[in-house]
Amino acid sequence: MSYYDIDAILTDAEKVPCKFELDVPDLGYLDNNPSQPLRAGTSIGLPLWLAEPLALTSRSQSSAEDGSSFVSLDLPASLSGQVMSALKADARAVPLRDQSHNFYGLGTRMLDLFEEREMCAVLRRTFVARAADIALHARKAGATEDMGVGTGEEFLRGLEEWERKLFRKAHEGTKGTKEWMEGVKKH
């Protein structure tokens, strides 16, 4: 990941549900209550770049009894049990872009924070299953030079960013192979 990687920046901007573990003065506006402090137990969505350090940092470094974090994190809706069940049933039928534009990036970041072996397995199987369809569509687009016109456009609409990059690479590979074969036939 590069500092200037736009996909990483957009992934870190994804909101994740958090529950504050203590009262925080002057932050009531986050809960549409500007004149009040943000109360302990309040659940709000924070961008991942902010939620992660708040969840991983202890409130008090010196006292062991009060070493809990400022917030507790939950999995975002795009990685909920319902979505994981749908992916287990048929990974190709779920439009991942509707869940999150950077679905796999968000999943990877959340796996850094949570010990979710089942989610890891589901995401891996999902990517492998969908990669075959992506490669097939990329070859078809390379053969007809339509690059997503008509029925292919609907397919591309459901792909999230990692899958779109995979599609572009597979399409470029097919196109390069076709050009190479034409050059071989000429000689």
Structural class: mainly alpha
Total E-strand runs: 3
- N-to-C terminal Cα separation, in Å? 42 Å
Q: In percent, how much strand structure appears in the residues?
A: 5-15%
Biggest sheet character: 3 strands, antiparallel
Described by the principal axes of the CA atoms, the overall outline is: elongated
Given the structure, what is the number of helices?
A: 8
Q: What's the order of the H and E elements?
A: HEEHEHHHHHH
Mean pLDDT, nearest integer? 86
Evaluate the radius of gyration.
22 Å
| Arrangement of strands in the largest sheet | 2-1-3
Poorly predicted residue ranges: none
Level of helix content? 40-55%
Q: Could you walk me through the main structural features you see in this protein, from its secondary elements to its overall organization?
A:
- The protein is mainly α and 187 residues long.
- Helices cover 54% and strands 7% of the residues.
- It has helices spanning 6-12, 48-56, 81-89, 96-99, 103-113, 117-144, 151-157, 161-186; strands at 15-20, 43-47, 71-73.
- Strands 2-1-3 form a 3-stranded antiparallel sheet.
- It is elongated and about 75 Å long.
